[in-house]
């Protein structure tokens, strides 16, 4: 079906509606976009609507900027004031807030009025979104944003790489400079405008001072020019030590007059290129970055220096990141806790920040984990305003090679009641500014789109970006409704398509939490290396403070006031009391706040360790259903996207088993408590590679041991000759799915063939690094471990299974085990 869909137009595909539906659309004679400026978002809106109507409805309409009162049934796009200026009646338009809009389709004409030009563009995208979903219902309503600040951050480096980016290279920078061709930047601005994002910080928070050389400042001006027609303003992340490193000053001390003068001068220059600059994002005294503390000053001194440089130029903001912590923390001190850092560093400065400083707070106190309680800093600010920071790239959530729809996770944060000063204090009401009477606050998210046509590396990952924009506007939006809208716009209106993608999406975060880290223990990925595959042991024994404190007897961080790090006490009284006690802490955050024995019984009645075992089995079993569910869409969506997603879901299903076994085996070895259901370490359908008859293969120990089925794998002994591994199949004759667990590392693309007797049943290459874009590893570990399955293989008792592996480069055709699975069994 259909032509190649590469994902570039994401949810703005404007696919034609079925002809009968097209006919029921009430036609309009003209689009009147009330602005004569070609760079105005209203002009953009006019063109967008013309294009959308042509494609969705197969109708051609002219656009004009001049208002003729007698135009029959027009579509009018403007601001409330520009409409009033041409004599439009505005008495029925409800009062709008900044960026809000009014849309009415009642009667003959359509009226889309923004409080400002950006709002009018948002209203136009809204109208197009309902048309594209075949919804011509007559409506009249106004809508306003919950968050005034609705930004995104991109962690793009000037050399073109993207920190924690899993979708290609930067489309802003290359070789230390701003790219000449900024086509993708404009396309991205269009996508962001359609979800009502009003700001973008274009470079990595780990910033480089050469961003501020003359050529790059001019380049930033070009980026801003591309984005302005979409109502999107740009900001930049700054390197704190730029005065020393770029300016040649002896210090970057924020109270030094020469340093302040240097920043004032840089800021003025920047405003010449970007007159509507959003402001600066600052990561300082964090993960090795210099900052005001380096110079014996307070964080407020640092933030205010930037704030005062911005002040004379207008409404520029300093987004000062609260992600300040010591990453050389001593784990032997049971009182040490990275989760305490934000409150310790910022709370006492509450009255010290200038009015145009906003503190940017990650949603949890550690780092975008699969589950965290709300960052307590959000309950400790009164005067200082804040934005919350989410992450759309899935750094700790499968890096877009796993499907994880995160809107339900974000909702657990936004709907949480912090009970500040004993009063209702939903996080979403703090962020809207209502609860603490903040003049400016809201949202930002790290997106890290790249130049891959899919933007995020996986078509299904885009629902996260879409839902993020919707939640900034209306944090009460329903995750199900959002993913349904997104699916209709992205994949079409077919009910099976919508239902299937919604189901997979809604099951995906619980599944991922199931097979990664449970009960608030965090994601359990390799935090020292790529943050991708399982490595529960990597969480402890280092200074990063993402500790689990797992030993033979128990696990979890004691964060209580009574006996632990005191973190529970950083929350307002009622919440603190809840987290202080095991009995009142919800199971899903138990190990975040408490250190308990493995045999501790949860509210569910299960022990902690049995919960781990079961959750890992249930989570990975859910992931096994994703490729099967997806098969139902084969003829209902285009082949290109069907195959793209099918490939990833199969990979995810296999990797979820790697996760399951690694985590379960790790804790099983730690505590020695067997799985009540006797699954962990007991894999009756597996043939371990190291027990096979080997020729040209040798046995190696895998470290840590839980990264292989029995701690061992095999690798070829030479790159010149193939290795073979053989075994007799002692299973009853029948039809089996044959799964092979192997390691796909960086540094080579091995070849494999698998035979039953001399019958070839499959062949593959260790070339996932060419197909998937998560961070790869050079080692035999939880990142490289993977599984390929050959379904429906006829096997007779006594048959011989043989794998032939040919090494390539530094990848020695490594194998872990072969599973011969009867129908319905996954192991
Ligand atoms: C995480 C991430 C880093 C990033 C940092 C930040 O630690 O792994 O790559 O720089 O967050 O948010 O500043």
Automatic annotation (TrEMBL):
Residues 10-127 form the Alpha glucuronidase N-terminal domain. SUPFAM superfamilies: (Trans)glycosidases, beta-N-acetylhexosaminidase-like domain. It holds the Pfam family Glyco_hydro_67N. The lineage of its organism: Eukaryota, Fungi, Dikarya, Ascomycota, Pezizomycotina. Residues 135-455 form the Glycosyl hydrolase family 67 catalytic domain. It comes from Hyaloscypha variabilis (strain UAMH 11265 / GT02V1 / F) (Meliniomyces variabilis). This is Alpha-glucuronidase. It catalyses: an alpha-D-glucuronoside + H2O = D-glucuronate + an alcohol. One of its GO terms (biological process) is xylan catabolic process. GO terms for cellular component: extracellular region. The keyword Hydrolase applies. Keywords: Carbohydrate metabolism, Glycosidase, Hydrolase, Polysaccharide degradation, Xylan degradation. The gene is aguA.
């Amino acid at each position: 079906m259909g032509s190649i869909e590469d994902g570039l137009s994401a949810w703005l595909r404007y696919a034609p509606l079925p002809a009968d539906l097209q006919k029921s659309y009430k036609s309009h004679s003209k689009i009147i976009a009330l602005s004569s400026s070609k760079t105005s978002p209203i002009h953009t809106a006019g063109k967008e609507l013309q294009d959308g109507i042509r494609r969705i409805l197969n109708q051609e309409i002219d656009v004009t900027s001049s208002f003729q009162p007698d135009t029959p049934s027009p579509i009018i796009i403007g601001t409330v004031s520009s409409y009033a200026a041409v004599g439009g009646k505005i008495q029925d338009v409800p009062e709008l807030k900044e960026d809000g809009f009014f849309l009415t389709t009642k009667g003959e004409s359509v009226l889309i009025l923004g409080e400002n030009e950006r709002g009018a563009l948002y209203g136009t995208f809204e109208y197009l979104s309902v048309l594209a979903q075949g919804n011509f219902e007559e409506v009249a309503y106004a809508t306003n944003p919950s968050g005034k600040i609705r930004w995104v951050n991109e962690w793009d480096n000037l050399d073109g790489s993207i920190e924690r980016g899993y979708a290609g290279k930067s489309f802003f920078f290359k070789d230390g400079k701003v790219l000449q061709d900024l086509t993708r930047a404009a396309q991205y601005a269009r996508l962001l405008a359609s979800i009502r994002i009003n700001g973008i910080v274009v470079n990595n928070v780990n910033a480089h001072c050469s961003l501020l050389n003359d050529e790059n400042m001019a380049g930033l001006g070009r980026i801003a020019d591309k984005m302005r027609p979409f109502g999107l303003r740009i900001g930049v992340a700054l390197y704190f030590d730029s005065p020393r490193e770029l300016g040649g000053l002896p210090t970057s001390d924020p109270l030094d007059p020469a340093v302040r003068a240097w920043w004032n001068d840089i800021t003025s220059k920047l405003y010449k290129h970007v007159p509507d600059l959003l402001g600066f994002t600052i990561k300082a005294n964090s993960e090795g970055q210099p900052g005001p503390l380096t110079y014996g000053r307070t964080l407020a001194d640092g933030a205010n220096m930037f704030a005062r440089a911005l002040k004379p130029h207008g409404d520029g903001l300093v987004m000062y990141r609260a992600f300040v912590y010591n990453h050389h923390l001593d784990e032997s001190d049971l009182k040490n806790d990275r989760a305490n850092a934000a409150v310790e560093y910022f709370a006492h400065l509450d009255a010290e920040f200038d009015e145009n400083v906003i503190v940017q707070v990650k949603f949890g106190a550690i780092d975008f984990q699969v589950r965290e309680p709300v960052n307590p800093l959000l309950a400790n600010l009164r005067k200082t305003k804040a934005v919350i920071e989410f992450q759309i790239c899935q750094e700790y959530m499968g890096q877009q090679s796993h499907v994880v729809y995160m809107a339900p996770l974000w909702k657990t944060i936004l709907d949480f009641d912090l009970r500040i000063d004993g009063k209702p204090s939903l996080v979403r009401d703090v962020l809207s500014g209502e609860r603490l009477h903040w003049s400016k606050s809201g949202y930002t998210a790290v997106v890290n789109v790249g130049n891959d046509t899919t933007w995020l590396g996986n078509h299904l990952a885009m629902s996260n970006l879409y839902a993020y924009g919707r939640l900034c506007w209306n944090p009460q939006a329903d995750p199900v409704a959002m993913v349904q809208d997104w699916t209709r716009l992205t994949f079409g209106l077919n009910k099976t398509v919508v239902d299937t993608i919604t189901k997979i999406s809604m099951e995906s975060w619980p599944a991922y939490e199931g097979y990664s880290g449970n009960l608030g223990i965090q994601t359990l990925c390799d935090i020292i290396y790529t943050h991708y595959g399982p490595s529960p042991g990597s969480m402890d024994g280092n200074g990063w403070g993402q500790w689990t404190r797992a030993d033979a007897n128990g696990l979890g961080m004691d964060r209580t006031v009574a006996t632990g790090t005191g973190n529970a006490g950083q929350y307002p009284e009622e919440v603190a009391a809840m987290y202080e006690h095991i009995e009142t802490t919800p199971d899903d955050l138990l190990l975040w706040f408490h250190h308990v024995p493995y045999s501790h019984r949860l509210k569910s009645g299960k022990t902690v360790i049995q919960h781990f075992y079961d959750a890992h089995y249930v989570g990975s079993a859910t992931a096994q259903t994703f490729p099967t569910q997806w098969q139902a869409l084969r003829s209902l969506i285009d082949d290109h996207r069907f195959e793209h997603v099918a490939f990833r879901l199969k990979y995810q299903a296999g990797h979820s088993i790697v996760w399951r076994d690694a985590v379960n085996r790790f804790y099983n070895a730690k505590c020695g408590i067997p799985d009540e259901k006797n699954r962990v370490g007991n894999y009756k359908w597996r043939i371990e590679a190291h027990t096979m008859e080997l020729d040209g293969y040798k046995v190696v120990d895998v470290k840590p041991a839980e990264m292989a089925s029995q701690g061992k794998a095999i690798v070829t002994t030479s790159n010149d000759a193939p290795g073979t591994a053989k075994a007799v199949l002692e299973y009853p004759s029948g039809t089996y799915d044959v799964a092979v667990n192997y390691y796909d590392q960086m540094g080579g693309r091995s070849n494999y063939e698998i035979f039953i007797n001399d019958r070839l049943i499959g062949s593959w290459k260790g070339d996932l690094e060419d197909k998937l874009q998560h961070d790869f590893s050079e080692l035999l570990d939880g990142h490289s471990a993977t599984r390929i399955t050959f379904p429906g293989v006829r096997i007779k008792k006594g048959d011989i299974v043989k794998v032939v592996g040919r090494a390539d480069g530094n990848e020695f055709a490594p194998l872990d085990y072969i599973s011969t699975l009867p129908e319905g069994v996954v192991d």
